[in-house]
Design goal:
Elements lengths: L11 E5 L16 H16 L2 E5 L19 H8 L4 E3 L6 H6 L5 E4 L6 H4 L12 H21 L3 E4 L24 E3 L1 H14 L6 E5 L8 H7 L5 E4 L3 H8 L14 H14 L2 E4 L2 E5 L8 E5 L8 E5 L1 H12 L3 E5 L12 H15 L3 E4 L3 H8 L8 E2 L4 H7 L5 H4 L4
Parallel strand pairs: 1-2, 1-5, 2-4, 3-4, 5-6, 7-8, 7-13, 8-9, 13-14, 14-15
Antiparallel strand pairs: 10-11, 10-12
The structure holds adenosine monophosphate (AMP).
The site of adenosine monophosphate has 16 residues, from strand 12.
């Protein structure tokens, strides 16, 4: 079912959102992006004349009640944003009465789903190596179904709007969908937008397509790099990965982050890019530092001739030009991972050059998708969020989607 075509009048909708928002030590929300992201779906239910049950996880309480991760802390900001006084169910698995009493236009927020181990469905207090593990897992899967069934019993309709957890097969993200027929389960508006954004860079690609992969390690990005190799025209590999490639080609990388066991993998990636006609863009120079700190002394050196005791922490000026050239003419752009240690103000230059080039290309009609944690933080740090086409709310979920994997949370509510 498509949410645009569904009328929630007289119905109770249970909506899985991602309200895993950062809180300060006083329990105040420090970044409400995720709450704002879910508003179109939540408001549609209310505007249609439905009743709303909201469920989410927060943090990693590992199946135990922990006040630090209580969603009671966000009742006020959610009430304020919805313009409705939100009621709170302090136990998500014992909310049947509160749900039954809910009237059209009313909102009930359930306590953190992950206070129950059934949400994630992993057995607790038993190691994978324990001979009894398989039995415990089987038992947990069965209680996970019961838990999902309980949540499902609160409502007539299930909406999944939590893209950030769509790569997990949890009770509230996937299993619950088994208890609704196809006409009564659907992705929310945010989920739809995320699916569309991924499709723009995987399905409906306009060339040239430039992907920029940065961050610290090759090993965590290899799945995506391999999947993108069949699709992109330009592949920029930057950040800490630079030095694994430089070393693999025989360079001296000093103290730079380098995965010694991935040197062959780096050479394989280079060979594959060549065979597929992909323009692989690697850094040529870097800003090297004499310590891992913002105040370190710096010098610009070739990435393959970093002096002993120094480490590359940002892309150099020549490299920034190479990156910009590969980005500015693109019609599709994907950016995941910074080009340097952007958390230090003195090492943001490479990432900023990328962000500037993306903004320019976007102004010229390119579709640009930014996602996967740190590049989003980067764009926000530069105050450039409104100069790109789409910023994904998903970290791991976005990366898995781009790897071409089917996400359980999306499959569960697919039409
Ligand atoms: P990831 O989570 O793999 O996307 O990595 C993001 C992290 O990579 C950020 O915290 C950056 O500070 C870090 N990073 C980027 N470039 C470098 C570099 N040259 N040396 C060390 N860390 C880096």
């Amino acid at each position: 079912m498509k949410i645009d075509n569904f009328n929630f009048a007289g119905k109770k909708a249970i909506v899985r959102v991602d309200f895993n928002v950062p809180l300060d030590e006083n329990g105040h929300v420090t970044d409400d992006t995720r709450i704002r992201g879910a508003l179109p779906t939540l408001k549609k239910v209310l505007a249609d004349g439905g009743a709303l049950i909201i469920m989410s996880h927060m943090g990693k309480p590992k199946g135990k009640v922990n006040p630090k991760f209580s969603l009671s802390q966000i009742v006020a900001p959610v009430s304020e944003k919805l313009g409705v006084e939100v009621k709170f169910a302090p136990d998500c698995a014992k909310a049947a009465e509160a749900a039954a009493a809910l009237k059209a236009g009313e909102v009930l927020l359930l306590e953190n789903l992950r206070f129950y181990p059934e949400e994630e469905g992993k057995p607790v207090g038993i190691e994978k190596t324990d001979p009894a593990y398989d039995e415990a897992k089987k038992a947990m899967k069965s209680s996970q179904k019961e838990f999902a069934k309980t949540l499902a019993s609160y409502a007539d309709v299930y909406v999944n709007d939590a893209f950030g957890t769509a790569h997990r097969k949890h009770a509230s993200t996937a299993v619950i969908a088994d208890y609704f027929d196809a006409d009564h389960k659907m992705p929310g508006f945010l989920m739809q937008k995320e699916i569309q954004a991924v499709d723009n860079v995987l399905g409906n690609i306009k060339h040239p397509f430039t992907a920029i992969m940065g961050g610290s390690k090759v090993s965590t990005k290899i799945g995506i790099i391999e999947n993108l190799m069949d699709k992109v025209d330009n592949l920029i590999l930057c950040g800490g990965m630079t030095y694994t490639f430089a070393k693999a080609m025989g360079g001296e990388v000093g103290l730079s982050i380098c995965e010694e066991d991935k040197l062959q993998l780096a050479l394989d990636i280079m060979a594959k890019a060549k065979a597929k006609g992909v323009n692989l863009v690697l850094g040529t120079d870097c800003v090297a530092a004499d310590s891992f700190s913002n105040d370190a002394n710096t010098q610009v050196v070739p990435v393959n001739a970093i002096p002993e005791g120094w480490e590359g922490l940002d892309a150099g000026p020549e490299t920034r030009k190479l990156f910009a050239a590969a980005i500015e003419g693109a019609k599709t752009i994907l950016w995941n991972g910074p080009a340097g240690v952007f958390e230090f103000d003195n090492f943001t230059g490479g990432s900023r050059a990328i962000a500037d080039a993306i903004a320019k290309a976007t102004a010229n009609g390119a579709f640009s998708l930014i996602g996967g944690g740190d590049s989003v933080a980067c764009i926000n740090k530069f105050g450039m969020a409104d100069q790109v086409s789409y910023i994904s709310t998903g970290g791991g979920a976005l990366l898995e989607a781009i790897e071409g994997k089917v996400l359980p949370g999306i499959a569960a509510v697919a039409e």
